[in-house]
Amino acid sequence: MAKPTARNLERKSAEATGEKQRELQREQDRKDEAKTEASGEGGKKQKAVQAGPREQPEPPMPAQHMAKPGVEADMDLQPRFLAPDYRGSGKLKGMVALITGGDSGIGRAVAVLYAREGADVAIVYLNSHEDAQETRRYVEKEGRECLLIAGDVKDSKFCKQAVERTVQEFDRLDILVNNAAFQLHADKLEDVSDERLEETMKTNIFGYFYMARAAIPHLKKGACIINTGSVTGLRGSSHLLDYSATKGAIHAFTMSLASNLIDKGIRVNAIAPGPVWTPLNPADAPADKVAKFGEKTDMKRPAQPEELSPAYVFLASPVCSSYITGIVLPVTGSVGD
């Protein structure tokens, strides 16, 4: 019998992590189902704000609950990631970007715009192979190459291998986007088990450390790291206790690493999104809560991924942000975040 290859072992590890996350989700689902549903809030619904070139979907969103890690292809309302009104101008020409969580959601939207701006892209993802293939198809439609790397960012060895495979494939690395995340709500701190806490912390902050540590030896002057934080890291969240803690840590990590790398000419910044319509949310909240997703923002709706991705281009492009490092840029749909 043939020995299992390292890549097959990585895939098995990723599948096991996916099943672990689904079991944590099932445990929370049972708690949600045991609760008595509160009565509706009533009152007149305020109109959502539309400030972009085309109107975006508004609440109520599809009342859908998905198994983790969530598959974009299975969403009743497909997230918008193509940004058809965005015109590329070579801001990232000749560069190479590695994006974790790049198979769907914000990561997919960023991959498409990076390709439109001239970059080749490596996508690190857990086990949503169908979504990853779709992302690659759209990157290639932009005329660039896309490398898919399946595995678990909680594994430091995998992170090192992912960076090495990217450099081997493209001969360089200019942009690291840390974007992979695990999120699961809880009504009280007592519901956050040791296993859940470890899954959230290791995915959301350990994974960022591992990827950055592996990437830095390959980054040259003018390169950058962009971390995905969250509005929950700015103001907290009563139902996302562990997730919010990791996002606050990501913001501090961003500023600290920016100071650490500034003499090398490597910039480090973060983006703190508000509610964004991605698989992360229907793969967390119950269906009735998903229907109301984003309505508490000042714009009364969630963002679509294509409304976030231009900010990642801005922070990646040396011609746009060569004098910007150590910031956390809020893109929240609300005033004052």
Please explain how this structure is put together.
It is a single chain. The chain is built from 10 helices and 7 strands. By secondary structure, the chain is α/β, with parallel strands linked by helices. The protein has one domain: Rossmann fold (3-Layer(aba) Sandwich). It has a 7-stranded parallel beta sheet with strand order 3-2-1-4-5-6-7, with helices on both faces. Helix 4 runs parallel beside helix 5. The longest helix has 29 residues. The protein is globular and about 55 Å long. The mean pLDDT is 93.
Taking the sheet with the most strands, its summary is: 7 strands, parallel
Q: What is the structural class?
A: alpha/beta
- The CATH topology, please? Rossmann fold
Order of SSEs, N→C? HEHEHEHEHEHHEHHHE
Approximate shape: globular
CATH class: Alpha Beta
| Whole-angstrom Rg | 19 Å
Determine the strand fraction and express it as a percent band. 5-15%
The CATH superfamily turns out to be NAD(P)-binding Rossmann-like Domain
Report mean pLDDT, rounded to a whole number: 93
The end-to-end distance, rounded to whole angstroms, is: 57 Å
Provide key terms for this protein.
globular; single chain; seven-stranded parallel sheet; 7 strands; 337 residues; Rossmann fold; alpha/beta
Structure summary:
By secondary structure, the protein is α/β, with parallel strands linked by helices.
Write the layout of secondary structure elements.
Layout: H1 6-34, E1 96-100, H2 105-116, E2 120-125, H3 129-141, E3 146-150, H4 156-170, E4 175-178, H5 194-215, E5 224-228, H6 232-235, H7 241-261, E6 267-273, H8 287-290, H9 309-316, H10 318-321, E7 328-331
Parallel strand pairs: 1-2, 1-4, 2-3, 4-5, 5-6, 6-7
Helix pairs in contact: 2-3, 2-9, 4-5, 5-7
